[in-house]
Amino acid sequence: MLPKLESDTLVLRVPESGDFDAYSRFFADPAASGGYGGPLRPDRAWQILAGHIGHWCLRGYGMWMVVNRDTGEVLGGCGFVWPKGWPRRELTWWLLPDARGRGIATCASRLAIRHAYMDYAWDQVETHMNDDNIAARALVDRLGGIWIARQMFPDGLERNVFRLPHPDRS
User: Fold this and answer.
1) Which of 6, 82, 127, 140 is the 20 to 30 A CA-CA neighbour of 154?
2) Is 128 left (phi over 0), alpha (psi -120 to 50) or beta?
3) Exposed (0-12), middle (13-18) or buried (19+): which is 58, by Cβ within 10 Å?
4) What are the φ and ψ backbone dihedral angles of 71, each rounded to 5 degrees?
C-alpha cells in the first residue's frame, strides 16, 4: 500500500491522473515553474505527472500531492525523486502560486522527512537546488539543512547539497 501522510492541515497522497490540472497550471506559470524547467506545454506537464506516478513503481517512493485537509484542494507536490543517472535522491517540492507564503512547503517537507527517517529508515535525507533558487534555499534553512557537498549534476550544473535533519530531533 502506498503511503499517505497527514498533519492537522495537510494530506500528502500519491499523485493520480486527476492531478493533471494542478501540474498543467504550475508548469504553465513561468514565475512558479522557472526553477523546474518551465514554463512547459500541457503535454510536457503530463509527462512529468506520469513520471512522478511511475517513480513510485520504479523506486518504491516518490512525490506526493500536497492537499488541503479541509477542502481537498491540491496545493502542490512534495516528496523524493532520484532520476536515472543522477548521483543522489532528493527531497523536492513545488507549490501553486496561491499556496506560497503560508508555511505549506515547510509543513509538507517535515512530513516527508519524518517519513523517510522513520518508515524508510534512511540514514540521511538530502536536497539540492539551483544556486539562484532563493525560495528553496530559504526553505532548506527553515528545515535546519546542513551543507554537505558541492556536486556536478548530469544537466551540467553544479549545486550545493544539504542534509535535512529529522524534524523531531533537530
Assistant:
1) 140
2) beta
3) exposed
4) -105, -20
Q: Which amino acid is at 67?
A: V
| CATH number, span 5-125 | 3.40.630.30
- 147: which 3 cell numbers? 551543507
- Cell, residue 81: 525523486
The sign of the torsion formed by the CA atoms of 74, 75, 78, 82 equals positive
Is this prediction's pTM over 0.70? yes
Distance CA 14, CA 55 (A): 10
Which cell goes with 59?
523506486
146: nearest Cα among 166, 116, 131: 166
pLDDT for 170: 58
User: Out of 30-39, 76-85, 143-152, which region has the weakest mean confidence (pLDDT)?
Assistant: 30-39
Q: Is the pLDDT of residue 35 over 90?
A: no
The amino acid at residue 85 is G
Interatomic CA distance for residues 82 and 80, integer angstroms: 7
